[in-house]
Amino acid sequence: QAVVRGFPTPCILTLYDVPMMEELHSLDPRRQELLEARFTGVGVAKVCFAGGSGPGTSPARSLPPVVRSSPQHHSLSNPPGTVSMLPHFPSDLTVEKLTAMENNKNSDLEKKEGRIDDLLRANCDLRRQLDEQQRMLERYKERLNKCVTMSKKLLIEKSKQEKMACRDKSMQDRLRLGHFTTVRHGASFTEQWTDGYAFQNLIKQQERINSQREDIERQRKALAKRKPPSMAQTPPLSLEQNKRKSKANGAESEAYVTPPLPLSAEYHEQEEIFKLRLGHLKKEEAEIQAELERLERVRNLHIRELKRIHNEDNSTFKDHPTLNDRYLLLYLLGRGGFSEVYKAFDLTEQRYVAVKIHQLNKNWRDEKKENYHKHACREYRIHKELDHPRIVKLYDYFSLDTDSFCTVLEYCEGNDLDFYLKQHKLMSEKEGRSIIMQMVNALKYLNEIRPPIIHYDLKPGNILLVNGTACGEIKITDFGLSKIMDDDSYNSVDGMELTSQGAGTYWYLPPECFVVGKEPPKISNKVDVWSVGVIFYQALYGRKPFGHNQSQQDILQENTILKATEVQFPPKPVVTPEAKAFIRRCLVYRKEDRIDVHQLASDPFLMPHIRKSVATSGASGTAIPSTSSSSNSSASN
Fold this sequence. Notes:
By secondary structure, the chain is α+β, with helices and mostly antiparallel strands. Among the domains are: 74 residues, no CATH class; 79 residues; 89 residues, Phosphorylase Kinase, domain 1 (2-Layer Sandwich), CATH 3.30.200; 203 residues, Orthogonal Bundle (Transferase(Phosphotransferase), domain 1). 48% of the residues lie in helices and 12% in strands. It has a six-stranded antiparallel beta sheet. β12 and β13 form a beta hairpin. It is found in: Nucleus. Keywords: ATP-binding, Coiled coil, Kinase, Nucleotide-binding, Nucleus, Serine/threonine-protein kinase, Transferase. This is non-specific serine/threonine protein kinase. It is an enzyme of class 2 (transferase). It catalyses: L-seryl-[protein] + ATP = O-phospho-L-seryl-[protein] + ADP + H(+); L-threonyl-[protein] + ATP = O-phospho-L-threonyl-[protein] + ADP + H(+).
């Protein structure tokens, strides 16, 4: 018996037979380590027997050293003269089972090693595929660069051809439509417009028609003097009276023969001829007037193209540079006070864009440059977050140098509404209503986002016609004067303070923007509602409702908008009462009484089903008592 260290109570230990121990020691060191690892801490321990001749022991049967075990749990220091004995616990493990377990472990190890080899081979395959993909990617990049280079070359070539064609057409139109000539007035030179041969020919035709009309009027007056008397008023002379009168006046007739009066039939024939000739001249004059108006529209395009070509030739970006390694400039679209707008091609996204190049005046002070740049950054931050089909998208913003930067906008092929109205004067009510519906839809979006936005600069020049006609889609642009209605500056009752009083286009601003006092005026989204009413009025009547022939300075000095208490409608062209009522709701003088954007979006005039129901109920509920009453009502309408 022996007490094993680590056990609280004594236990009986029996020794393995010597052959079994020899078999254990005959295992290779690797298997011994596996067995040690398997049975560490399971009850394997070493005990020391004092002396070696105690009762129940056989000194002759000494055992060889046992397998290694953990020194903390299975080893005891053996004093001299002691024998290390292996304790035995009841177990069903045998050497065969241990060998089988070892074989299983070896097979698992071989499987793991095989799996590792498979993974290494797969890793090598993947690395080889990755290298191939990298080489393929490099080839594709090289091809893409070649394609981009070729695209740039073709776009530049096409742009040069278009520029040449525009200049050739402009030179031809110079002779036909006219051109600018430099005229000296004292010590200064001014440009004066000279009409081309097309206008000169029309003027000659107009002069010819006027001359023929005057000639016909003279002949008609002469014919009226020789108008024969009617049969009822003066009876015809008898034959003898004619003979006596002719004999009495024989001497006078030799000196001067009075032409005989035309007969009644001849007179009426001649009168009918004169009327037909005058009618033909009137028709021809109307055709000349229509042709003159058409030529004036073409001349406006020609003058605009002449100015564009002149500005393009003097631009520093005329030679197709690539800005920001991405935007290839093609040709100039227009030029403003401090900016140029180019049609460009986005080489990354493969689409046409409009690049607006802001160029600061180099003579400005640094403070003014900083304010301008700050204002442009503010516009960029406002516009960048907007995403609506009726608002021009802003794609990018970058700096060129210290005095210039660019904004990249969505490109629209058509012109703006201002140019359309200058060409066509006005439009039909259906076309104008379609444009207003799209504008109100965009304004509704601007007031539904957080924080809401007041555009503040709605005018025909900031409304783009996508296809250049009044029967297509529109897009709103230019958020340079927009106001953000955040919680800090906006009050739902009074609105927000107008900090930029004096800015904007005066014809389209409401009266509250012109109020001068100790504190800045308060504005809200009703500013845009007023602008919608002015634009709709101008589209229908071809003129502005307030200050039509005035300049901005005159409007400011004469307080034109502050006096615009009521809108007046001309008799022509004919506009429906519903459209007039809609304009009146937009142009209410007091902002407290004017509808806001949300009410404008639900206005009956802009709701087709509501308009139809109103018209149907009005037709069914109105009785026509008599013909005279209906004629009187139609005359009053």
